[in-house]
Amino acid sequence: MRPSGRNLDQMREVSIETNVIKHAEGSCLIKMGDTHVLCTASLEPRVPPFIKGSGQGWVTAEYGMLPRSTTSRMRREATSGKQGGRTVEIQRLIGRALRAGVDRNALGERQITVDCDVIQADGGTRCASITGGWVALRLAVNKLLKAKDIVTDPLISPVAAVSCGIYAGQPVLDLDYPEDSEAGVDGNFILRADGSLIEVQMSAEGSVFSRAQMDQLMGLAEKGVNELVAAQLAATA
């Protein structure tokens, strides 16, 4: 039995509220159970120096957790003068994931920065950030299309992410914190809507896993991502 009482292949309740930030070109508040992430997308008429003059656009991301997003207060990283290694790793992951669903030539020479701020954490914050980040990105691109600043939709496919793992010997979908902290194996699966894999992060701690179990987790991830993509499309319709 899972701590939440969910079935092994059952996602947490997912909701996506759009246009929650007045000034951002795209924004949403995504809730995956008790994990809540505020995602915004900001258009900028510039690109990093390494692609300047190429005609290609760029999508990047920043990620952070509010001090009381967790059970005890976290110190703001700004007070230490630098980001932690985990933060840097996650925001690079979000950027890579979102770029995999973008035709950068169609985007043109402009940058979209997706900011993901965790306001409440209960496991799967990077997955919620990627899933909500795509929604914010979609809304920002819609404004470019409406203004005729671009003529071709640069978004190739929705991108979504979900965690899966082996908890109490059973493969489970969408781990919350009690499961994540006890899982012998856990992973993050990032896919496009057509099922193409973007990235898989798998690790075992205190356990190992077989190829058959890996295949089971992949099947769960595909189910979860399909449900998330449906929620993304409904939110941006």
What can you tell me about this protein's structure?
Helices cover 32% and strands 29% of the residues. With 237 residues, the protein is of the alpha+beta class. It has a single domain, classed as 2-Layer Sandwich (Ribosomal Protein S5, domain 2), CATH 3.30.230.70. The strands form two sheets. A five-stranded mixed β-sheet has the order 1-2-3-5-4. A hairpin with a 2-residue loop joins strand 6 (159-167) and strand 7. The longest helix has 26 residues, at 211-236. The chain is globular, with a radius of gyration of 18 Å.
Approximate helicity band: 25-40%
Instruction: Tally the helices.
Output: 6
| Secondary structure category | alpha+beta
- Through-space gap between termini: 36 Å
The string of secondary-structure elements, in order, is EEEEHHHEHEEHEEH
Q: Which regions contain 5 or more consecutive residues with pLDDT less than 50?
A: none
| Rg for CA atoms | 18 Å
Instruction: Compute the number of strand runs.
Output: 9
Tell me what portion of residues adopts beta-strand conformation: 25-35%
Gross morphology is globular
Number of domains: 1
Keywords: Nucleotidyltransferase, RNA-binding, rRNA processing, Transferase, tRNA processing, tRNA-binding
InterPro entries: ExoRNase_PH_dom1, ExoRNase_PH_dom2, ExoRNase_PH_dom2_sf, PNPase/RNase_PH_dom_sf, Ribosomal_Su5_D2-typ_SF, RNase_PH, RNase_PH_bac-type, RNase_PH_CS
GO biological process, one term: rRNA 3'-end processing
Organism: Tropicibacter naphthalenivorans
